[in-house]
Amino acid sequence: MTVQFRYLDEAVASTLSSAAIDAATAAGASLASCRVEAIRNQVVVLRDGDLETSSDNVEFGLGVRVVVNGALGFAATVAKTADDARAVAIQAVNVARSVARAQRQIMELAPEPSHGTVRWASPYEIDPTTVPLSEKVDLLGSWSRQLLASPHVQHVTAYVLAVTEEKHYADSAGTIAFQQRVRVNPEVEAIAVDDAGFESMSTTAPPVGRGWEYLHGTGWDFASELAQLPDWLAEKKAAPSVESGRYDCVIDPTNLWLTIHESIGHATELDRALGYEAAYAGTSFATPDKRGTLKYGSSIMNVTGDRTAVHGLASVAIDDEGVESQSFPLIENGILTGYQLDRATAMVAGYDRSNGCAFADSPLHVPLQRMANVSLAPAPGDGPSTEELISDVERGLYIVGDKSWSIDMQRYNFQFTGQRFFKIENGKLAGQVKDVAYQATTTDFWGSLEKVGGEQTYLLAGAFNCGKAQPGQVAAVSHGCPSVLVSNVNILNTRSEAGR
Amino acid sequence: MSGLLHPQDVARQVLAEAGSAATVYISDGSEAEVRFANNTVTTNGQRRSSTVTVVVFDERADGVAAGVASRSGDVDIAELVSAARHDAAHAPLATDAAPLIGGLVDAGLTEDIPETSLDVMADVLDSLRELTVRAESRGVTMAGFFSHALQTTTVVTSAGAQRRFTQPTGSVQLVARADGGKRSTWRGLSTPHFRDVPMDELEADLYRRLEWAQRSIELPAGRYETLMSPSTVADMMAYLYFSNEGPDAADGRTVFSKPGGGTRIGETISSLPFTLYSDPHADGLECRPFVATGASSTAESVFDNAMDIQRTDWIREGVINDLRFHRAGAAEAGRPRATPGIDNIILEAGGTASLDDMIASTERGLLLNTLWYIRSVDPATLLLTGLTRDGVYLVENGQVTGQVNNFRFNESPLDLLTRATEAGVSEQTLPREFDEFYRARTCALRIPDFNMSSVSPAS
Known about the structure:
Chain A is 21% helix and 38% strand. With 500 residues, chain A is of the alpha+beta class. In chain A, helix 1 (10-26) runs parallel beside helix 2. The longest helix of chain A is centred in the first third of the chain and has 18 residues, at 82-99. Chain A starts with 9 loop residues before the first helix and ends with a helix. The mean pLDDT of chain A is 97. Chain B is an alpha+beta fold. In chain B, strands 3-2-1-4-5-6 form a 6-stranded antiparallel sheet. In chain B, a hairpin with a 4-residue loop joins strand 13 and strand 14. The longest helix of chain B has 16 residues, at 122-137. The two termini of chain B are 44 Å apart. The model of chain B has no long low-confidence stretch (mean pLDDT 97). Classes of the chains: A alpha+beta (500), B alpha+beta (459). Chains A and B meet through strand 1, strand 2, strand 3, helix 2 and helix 3 of A and strand 1, strand 2, strand 3, helix 2 and helix 3 of B.
C-alpha cells in the first residue's frame, strides 16, 4: 500500500532524524539510529450498551540509540525541534558513556546492509482511528443491545481498541524507512447472572492488522458469532463441572494461538535463551546448545517465525534496527532449529545477520528483541477438517477461545483456560462442560501432537498485549495455526483447585 | 533539555480555548534506567515525556456528555481542544456525570518540572561493576534493573481546582543465578530517591539465599504449610485490589458479588484482623493524593479529576469494608463516598513476628521468595494461578534446610486471608510481578495448606 502519514510530517521527521544522527556521530557514536513516531491509540468501551470509556491519544516522540566505544546508549524526548533532536542524541551518547563504567562485555551489532529508502504500509481499507467515536459507539451499542435482548444475558461489555502507528526510521548506515501500520482489537463479553452465581463468554474474534472493515465482516463473521453467543453462554452456565483427568483434546486455533505464543514464541527468543531476560521476563529451556537436537514436539510440528504475514500484527518491512523483515524456521519436523534474533543477540550467538525481530513499542523506548508472528503450519495437502479431528476422538474435549494463561519463567509448565469446552464422546460433540483448565509441560504437550488440521482450519489470531522487558513494553503479535489433536492432556477442575 | 510549555501555561491556554466546562490533565515524566544481565550492562534509557489530556463537557438539557483527547509533546492546543469538543458533541450522555471539582489549589503550581537522569543512581552504578566482578569470581551470574522516575501530575478544572503532585519512584532489583540457573534468587526494593541503597546488604542476602540452595530437595505437588514472604503477599494482594471494582461487584460478576444480588461489603472473611488499605499519605509510601485520569472506566471518572483521595480500608479487621467506586458509582450503589484507586497498598494484621521469627517457629514448611506470571483462572472465586520463582526453600525445625523445586500454584488471595493462621509484622516490600505497586507494605503470612498444583521444572 502507499504510505500516507496522517499524524507524522515526513519532512519534519526526516529533519529530526538527520539532526539526531549527525549530532550523535559528531559526538563519538560509531552507530546511531533514530525513530520518529506518531502512534494514535483509541479505546472505546461500552458497559451494558452505555459508553463507559473513551480515549483518543496521539503519542509523538523521537528516540535515539547509539553505540559509543562498545557501549549502548538510548535517550528520547517528545520535543519536536531539530535542536531537541540534537540534544537528545548527545544525551544518548552521554548515557552510553555513563553506563560504560559497569560494562564488562562490548556491545556489537550484527551487520546489516543499507536498504536505502523504504516505504511500506500494512494493508487496510479504512483507517480505524479515523472512524468517528459516534460510529464506534453505535456499532458496539447495537452488538450490546442484541445480546442484552436475550434472556440468557444480563450484562455485556463491548470494546474496540484501534491503533495507527506511523514510524520513520533512519540510521547511520543509510537505511531510511517510512512505515504505517493499523490494527484493531474488538471484543464482546456476555455475562449471565442468577442466584447461583455468574458465568461469562467472550467473542473469539482475534485482533488483526486490518482496518475498520474488519468489524463489518471482512475477515470475521461477527454477526454469526454474536447470534450464537447467548445460547452458548446459557449452555455453559448450566453445564456440568468437568471431571479432572487425562483427555484427548481437539484445540481450536482461537485457543491454540496463545499456547503457541507462550510455549514456543517466547521460548525461541534468543535474548531469553541467552539469559538477557533473567531478571524479569525469564529465560528459556530451549537453550542454544540444543539447536538442531531438541525434540520440541512430534514430527508433524513445523513452526516458523515471520514479520511478513499479511495482516500479521508483528509484520513490517524494516525492523527497529534497520533489518529487513524475513520469514525463518524455528521448529522443523519437531526439532528446534532456529531463534528470533535482534542484532545484538545475533552477534553474541555467531549469526551472520539478525532475522529482524527488533521492536520498540514507543518512540520513547529502546528497541528490544520482540516476537515475530510465530505460526504452526497446517497439514500439507488435503489435511483434516476440525470435524474430522473430532471424529477421531473417543473421549475428549474440544477447546475453543482463549481466556486465562500462565507459564513459568523457562517456558516449561503452562496452564490455560478457554471460552468453551465441549465434551467429545465417540467422535461427536456432547455438550459443554465448565470449570476447565489444561496444564502441561511444553515438550510433553507438543510431543503429544497427534494431528494438525488442514489449511481450511488455519486462522491468524494474536494479541495486542504481549509484555516484556523493564521498563515494560507491550507488543502486538499474530500467531497462525490450524486446529490440532493433542493426546492425553491433563485437565484440571478449577473449582476443585480452589478447594470448592 | 525541554522545549515544552509549562503545564500551567498549557492549562490556561486549554481552558481559554475550550471556553466551557473542561478539565486538563498533564502528565510530565522523566525517567532513567539501566538493565544488566550476564554480569554486564545491557539496555538503558533516559527519556522525557509529556502528555496533555483534555476533557470537554457538553452540557445538554437531559445531561452531560464528555469528550476526551490526549496528545504528547508540544501539543497543538487548538487541535487538541477541537478533538475533545468534537467527541463531546457526538458522545452519548455520560453515565458517570458529577459536578466538576473546584476550590482545591495546591502550592508549587508554577515551579519547574523536575527531571531525573542516570546521575541519581550514580552510587549503585559505581558499585555494579565490582558486584558483577565478585559474582563472576564465585561462579554467579547477576542480572537486574535500576530505575528512577519523576512523574509530575497537573490537573486543572474549569471549576477552579488546580492540583499538582510530583511522584518519585525508583527500584533496585537483583537476580543472582548459579549452577546454570539451578540456584537462583531475587532481591528487590523500592527506593524513590536512591539514597542509601544498601547494596552490600542486598548482595549479602543474595549469597545467603544461594547458600541455602546448596542442598536441593525435590517435592511433589500437593498442599503444604507455606510461609509467604511480604513480596509474594503483595503480589497476591495487588490482584485482589485490581479485582475490587464496585460496579462489577454490584452487577454480580466478581468474587465480591453476593449471590442473589448486592455486594459482599460487610462480610467477614478472616478470623485474623486483616486490614488491607490504601492511603496517599501513608508514611514512606506517599502517592498522588487526588484523582487524575485520562479516561473514565468502571471505577474511575474524568468528572472526578482533581478530587481529594482519602485513606480507604478495602478490608477492615477481617471484614470486607469497601470497593472502588467513582462518585457517580458510589451514589448509585448507596456508598457514603467515592473510593477511587490509590497508588499504594498496605496489609496489616497486628503481627509482630519478622519473617525470620516465623521461620524459627516452623516445624516443617515451605518459604516462598517471589511469585510470577499470576493470572486469573476463575473470577467467581478469584482463583489465581502462577509460579513460584527464584527461591522456594524448605524449612525444618526452625531452619532453612535447602531449596525446593518450583511449583505452579492455584490459589485465591481472598481464600489465603481466610485460611492464614499467622501474619507477621508489616514491612515495606516490592512485589516481583506487579512492580507498578512500588509502594507496598505487607506482612508475611503462614498458610497451612497452600495449593501447589504441579511441579515446574523451571529454575
